Amino acid sequence: LVWLLVLSLAWLGPALGGEDEDEEVIEEEEKEKEEDEVLSDEIKEEDNVLVLHEHNFARALSEHQLLLVEFYAPWCGHCQQLAPAFAQAAAELRNESSPARLGKVDATAQTALATEFGITSYPTLKLFRDGNRTHPLAYTGRMDSQGIVRWVQRRAGPSATLLQDTDTIAAFVNSQDLVVIGFFKDLRGEAAQAFFEVAAEMVDMTFGVAEAAELFQEYGLAADTVCLFKKFDERQTNFPVDPTRGLDTAELTRLLRVHSLQLVMEFTNETSNQIFSAKIPHHMLLFLNKSSPGQLSLQDSFRAAAGVFRGEVLFVVVDVTGHGADVLPFFGMTAADAPTLRLVKMENNRKYQMEQDNFSDSAIRSFIQAVLDGKVKPHLLSAEPPEDWDTRPVKVLVGKTFEQVAFDETKNVFVKFYAPWCPHCQAMAAAWEELAERYKDREDIVIAEMDSTANELENITIHGYPTLHYFPAGPGRKMVEFKSTRDVETFSKFLENGGTLPEEPPVSDIRGQPPCPGLSPAPAG
Carries keyword Isomerase (predicted)? Predict the structure, then answer.
């Protein structure tokens, strides 16, 4: 009987838990194998991108002269969006036998590396040169494959081509629509070195450098000068180096950006990045229908007004039937409103318009100068208030009704400023409705929302979506911005404490993604 019992247990063992034990052993072995792989300094690749961790990072630095590393988080949407472009750039650099390679580090798993390199947001890209891990260079290029390749290539070789004779420099000037040449009597001097720094950063332009005396004479120069050569507008624009202050890299970058643009730009998919990266404080826009010959002729006077404002105001033509159709809602316009003029102050997105459009060059100049002098009030968008704006728990505000509701001294008003297309706004919509339902019977609390793409306020500028502001009861027109976790309980705690939250340890919240940019007229903006 004892023998039968032992034999039965042997047969029944797997059914009674033996298989679980075997699975645990297998899992343990696989875990040990994975740990062994992580501890190894072997460098694996995924789509031509080196997969890096703390045990192979030093080896990667030693084996590659230039190494551009992306520190990412697996859950980060921006990282996921970058991944295909990063892989494509890695393949292009490898196919060109470049000394540069691309690598990636999961910063959420490799916390030691994330701490060492001060990673606080995702994705963060850093360039390591010649095995030096103490002073990596922050990536400043565009987040697309072409931008990545250009940025790395500019740092892999000389940032400017040495031009030694008149034939070479003439061919260089005529090689592209726009080139930059630095004329320096000493290429080892501080001014020339600053020029090389600018050339390394401005990867979308082609740079050359010259020091031969005959080349100074050929282009009418007597001292160190940076020259911008173009096949449009002015043929040659000179930026002399100040003999006292030297060459300021930030100022030269700004000047090159401003003068590399055409005097009048057309807003297209290809030019939009140039227009917004130029950092010109005001944009003067001519909205027209390019299929109308009568409207096309308005460009002549528009161009005539542009020259005196170069660097201060960028003149842009917007075709309301082309690429410009996407930005019309941002101005509260339709194609039928063309032709018309608008001036935008870029720092706060304030829009200005003439009382009645006048397209003469003198009228355009006078209007712009009046805006610059602070003599014209901004034109504020406002939708019409819905008939049922105050019948639902969430009150619907528009520009015309905002003041009377938000600054009612008898109410504590909590307002969500949103964009209909913003995914973060959509994600918190249910929580906002629930909050309003919770407080709908409170006479002293109002939960409201305003579509900031259709409504603007004179003294409140919304820079991102969603933005939440609390307007407490009482005199003084006070406003408190809510910056904590966006859920019903935290909102409620904020309201019950009179617009403040008790001090608590910071909580990691994946929903704390950067807000949608407030300046974009559409999701792809």
Answer: yes
